[in-house]
Protein backbone atom coordinates (compact mmCIF):
# COMPACT_ATOMS: atom_id res chain seq x y z
CA UNK A 1 0.00 0.00 0.00
CA UNK A 2 1.43 3.37 -0.99
CA UNK A 3 1.88 6.29 1.38
CA UNK A 4 -1.17 8.13 0.02
CA UNK A 5 -3.39 5.05 0.22
CA UNK A 6 -2.12 4.30 3.73
CA UNK A 7 -2.83 7.87 4.86
CA UNK A 8 -6.27 7.78 3.23
CA UNK A 9 -7.07 4.52 5.04
CA UNK A 10 -5.93 6.07 8.34
CA UNK A 11 -8.04 9.18 7.69
CA UNK A 12 -11.10 7.04 6.94
CA UNK A 13 -10.60 5.05 10.12
CA UNK A 14 -10.23 8.24 12.18
CA UNK A 15 -13.45 9.53 10.61
CA UNK A 16 -15.23 6.26 11.42
CA UNK A 17 -14.00 6.37 15.02
CA UNK A 18 -15.21 9.95 15.35
CA UNK A 19 -18.61 8.89 14.00
CA UNK A 20 -18.65 5.84 16.27
CA UNK A 21 -17.97 8.03 19.31
CA UNK A 22 -21.03 10.05 18.27
CA UNK A 23 -23.15 6.88 18.27
CA UNK A 24 -23.19 6.06 14.54
CA UNK A 25 -24.42 2.51 13.99
CA UNK A 26 -23.18 2.66 10.41
CA UNK A 27 -19.62 3.51 11.52
CA UNK A 28 -19.75 0.69 14.07
CA UNK A 29 -20.97 -1.73 11.42
CA UNK A 30 -18.21 -0.66 9.01
CA UNK A 31 -15.53 -1.16 11.66
CA UNK A 32 -17.11 -4.48 12.61
CA UNK A 33 -16.94 -5.77 9.03
CA UNK A 34 -13.40 -4.48 8.67
CA UNK A 35 -12.02 -6.16 11.81
CA UNK A 36 -14.34 -8.98 12.90
CA UNK A 37 -12.80 -11.64 10.65
CA UNK A 38 -9.25 -10.80 11.71
CA UNK A 39 -10.23 -10.66 15.37
CA UNK A 40 -12.10 -13.97 15.19
CA UNK A 41 -9.09 -15.68 13.56
CA UNK A 42 -6.76 -14.23 16.20
CA UNK A 43 -8.93 -15.44 19.10
CA UNK A 44 -9.59 -18.83 17.51
CA UNK A 45 -5.84 -19.32 17.07
CA UNK A 46 -5.30 -18.66 20.77
CA UNK A 47 -8.18 -20.80 22.08
CA UNK A 48 -8.71 -23.30 19.28
CA UNK A 49 -12.46 -23.15 19.91
CA UNK A 50 -14.62 -21.64 17.18
CA UNK A 51 -17.70 -21.12 19.35
CA UNK A 52 -15.84 -19.32 22.12
CA UNK A 53 -13.83 -17.35 19.55
CA UNK A 54 -17.10 -16.14 18.02
CA UNK A 55 -18.43 -15.19 21.47
CA UNK A 56 -15.28 -13.29 22.39
CA UNK A 57 -15.29 -11.52 19.02
CA UNK A 58 -18.89 -10.43 19.60
CA UNK A 59 -18.20 -9.45 23.19
CA UNK A 60 -15.15 -7.40 22.18
CA UNK A 61 -17.23 -5.40 19.73
CA UNK A 62 -19.96 -5.03 22.33
CA UNK A 63 -17.33 -3.51 24.66
CA UNK A 64 -16.28 -1.16 21.84
CA UNK A 65 -19.88 -0.01 21.49
CA UNK A 66 -20.39 0.34 25.25
CA UNK A 67 -17.22 2.41 25.72
CA UNK A 68 -17.20 4.16 22.35
CA UNK A 69 -17.13 7.64 23.91
CA UNK A 70 -13.79 6.79 25.58
CA UNK A 71 -11.96 5.66 22.44
CA UNK A 72 -9.08 8.03 21.79
CA UNK A 73 -8.29 8.11 18.08
CA UNK A 74 -5.18 10.20 18.75
CA UNK A 75 -3.33 7.60 20.81
CA UNK A 76 -2.59 4.31 19.08
CA UNK A 77 -4.66 2.39 16.62
CA UNK A 78 -8.23 1.25 16.88
CA UNK A 79 -7.19 -2.29 15.96
CA UNK A 80 -4.64 -2.33 18.80
CA UNK A 81 -7.34 -1.25 21.24
CA UNK A 82 -9.79 -3.83 19.90
CA UNK A 83 -7.25 -6.67 19.97
CA UNK A 84 -6.23 -5.76 23.55
CA UNK A 85 -9.87 -6.09 24.61
CA UNK A 86 -9.97 -9.51 22.94
CA UNK A 87 -6.69 -10.61 24.60
CA UNK A 88 -8.08 -9.69 28.00
CA UNK A 89 -11.21 -11.70 27.22
CA UNK A 90 -9.05 -14.68 26.15
CA UNK A 91 -7.21 -14.56 29.48
CA UNK A 92 -10.49 -14.40 31.38
CA UNK A 93 -11.83 -17.31 29.34
CA UNK A 94 -8.69 -19.41 29.89
CA UNK A 95 -8.89 -18.82 33.63
CA UNK A 96 -12.62 -19.61 33.57
CA UNK A 97 -11.96 -22.87 31.71
CA UNK A 98 -9.29 -23.78 34.22
CA UNK A 99 -11.66 -23.12 37.13
CA UNK A 100 -14.45 -25.11 35.47
CA UNK A 101 -12.09 -28.01 34.82
CA UNK A 102 -10.93 -27.98 38.42
CA UNK A 103 -14.45 -27.71 39.83
CA UNK A 104 -15.77 -30.41 37.49
CA UNK A 105 -13.02 -32.81 38.44
CA UNK A 106 -13.38 -31.90 42.08
CA UNK A 107 -17.15 -32.43 41.87
CA UNK A 108 -16.66 -35.81 40.17
CA UNK A 109 -14.37 -36.78 42.99
CA UNK A 110 -16.77 -35.47 45.64
CA UNK A 111 -19.94 -37.16 44.35
CA UNK A 112 -19.70 -39.85 47.00
CA UNK A 113 -19.36 -37.32 49.82
CA UNK A 114 -21.41 -34.22 50.52
CA UNK A 115 -19.59 -33.48 53.75
CA UNK A 116 -18.57 -29.80 53.78
CA UNK A 117 -15.43 -30.50 55.77
CA UNK A 118 -14.18 -32.92 53.13
CA UNK A 119 -14.88 -30.35 50.40
CA UNK A 120 -12.88 -27.72 52.24
CA UNK A 121 -10.00 -30.14 52.68
CA UNK A 122 -10.13 -31.13 48.99
CA UNK A 123 -10.24 -27.49 47.95
CA UNK A 124 -7.25 -26.72 50.19
CA UNK A 125 -5.33 -29.67 48.72
CA UNK A 126 -6.10 -28.37 45.24
CA UNK A 127 -4.93 -24.87 46.19
CA UNK A 128 -1.73 -26.32 47.66
CA UNK A 129 -1.18 -28.24 44.42
CA UNK A 130 -1.65 -25.07 42.37
CA UNK A 131 0.81 -23.22 44.62
CA UNK A 132 3.33 -26.07 44.21
CA UNK A 133 2.95 -25.88 40.45
CA UNK A 134 3.40 -22.10 40.54
CA UNK A 135 6.56 -22.56 42.62
CA UNK A 136 7.94 -24.82 39.88
CA UNK A 137 7.70 -21.97 37.37
CA UNK A 138 10.71 -19.87 36.49
CA UNK A 139 10.72 -16.88 38.90
CA UNK A 140 10.02 -14.27 36.22
CA UNK A 141 7.06 -16.23 34.79
CA UNK A 142 5.64 -16.79 38.26
CA UNK A 143 5.95 -13.09 39.09
CA UNK A 144 4.19 -12.08 35.87
CA UNK A 145 1.36 -14.56 36.41
CA UNK A 146 0.83 -13.57 40.05
CA UNK A 147 0.79 -9.87 39.12
CA UNK A 148 -1.99 -10.68 36.65
CA UNK A 149 -3.88 -13.13 38.86
CA UNK A 150 -3.56 -11.56 42.31
CA UNK A 151 -3.02 -7.87 41.57
CA UNK A 152 -5.29 -7.85 38.49
CA UNK A 153 -2.81 -5.74 36.53
CA UNK A 154 -3.13 -5.42 32.77
CA UNK A 155 -0.41 -6.67 30.47
CA UNK A 156 0.65 -3.09 29.87
CA UNK A 157 0.89 -2.33 33.59
CA UNK A 158 2.93 -5.48 34.18
CA UNK A 159 5.20 -4.64 31.25
CA UNK A 160 5.83 -1.14 32.58
CA UNK A 161 6.52 -2.36 36.13
CA UNK A 162 8.94 -5.05 34.94
CA UNK A 163 10.40 -3.02 32.07
CA UNK A 164 9.56 -5.72 29.48
CA UNK A 165 7.38 -5.81 26.39
CA UNK A 166 3.63 -6.47 26.51
CA UNK A 167 4.21 -9.39 24.12
CA UNK A 168 6.57 -10.99 26.65
CA UNK A 169 3.94 -10.61 29.36
CA UNK A 170 1.28 -12.10 27.10
CA UNK A 171 3.50 -15.05 26.15
CA UNK A 172 4.44 -15.78 29.77
CA UNK A 173 0.83 -15.73 30.97
CA UNK A 174 -0.27 -17.96 28.09
CA UNK A 175 2.53 -20.46 28.86
CA UNK A 176 1.67 -20.47 32.56
CA UNK A 177 -2.02 -21.21 31.94
CA UNK A 178 -1.11 -23.95 29.48
CA UNK A 179 1.35 -25.43 32.00
CA UNK A 180 -1.16 -25.35 34.87
CA UNK A 181 -3.86 -26.99 32.76
CA UNK A 182 -1.59 -29.82 31.67
CA UNK A 183 -0.17 -30.47 35.14
CA UNK A 184 -3.53 -30.31 36.91
CA UNK A 185 -5.00 -32.80 34.48
CA UNK A 186 -2.12 -35.17 35.37
CA UNK A 187 -2.65 -34.64 39.10
CA UNK A 188 -6.41 -35.08 39.00
CA UNK A 189 -6.29 -38.17 36.82
Using brief descriptors, characterize the structure shown:
189 residues; mainly alpha; Rna Polymerase Sigma Factor, Chain: A; Arc Repressor Mutant, subunit A
The shape, in one word, is elongated
CATH topology of the largest domain: Rna Polymerase Sigma Factor, Chain: A
Q: Just name the CATH architecture of the largest domain.
A: Orthogonal Bundle
Which structural class do the helices and strands define? mainly alpha
Mean of residue pLDDT values: 83
- Supply the number of structural domains: 2
Compact summary:
The chain has helices at 3-21, 25-47, 50-66, 78-110, 116-135, 139-149, 155-162, 166-188. The protein has 189 residues and is mostly helical.
Amino acid sequence: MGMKAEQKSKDIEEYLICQLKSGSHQAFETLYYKYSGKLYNFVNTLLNDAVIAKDITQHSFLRIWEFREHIDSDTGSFSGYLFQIAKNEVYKESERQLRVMLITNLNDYEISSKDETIRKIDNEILNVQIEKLLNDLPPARKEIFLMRRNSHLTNKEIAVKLNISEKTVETQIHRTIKYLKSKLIEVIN
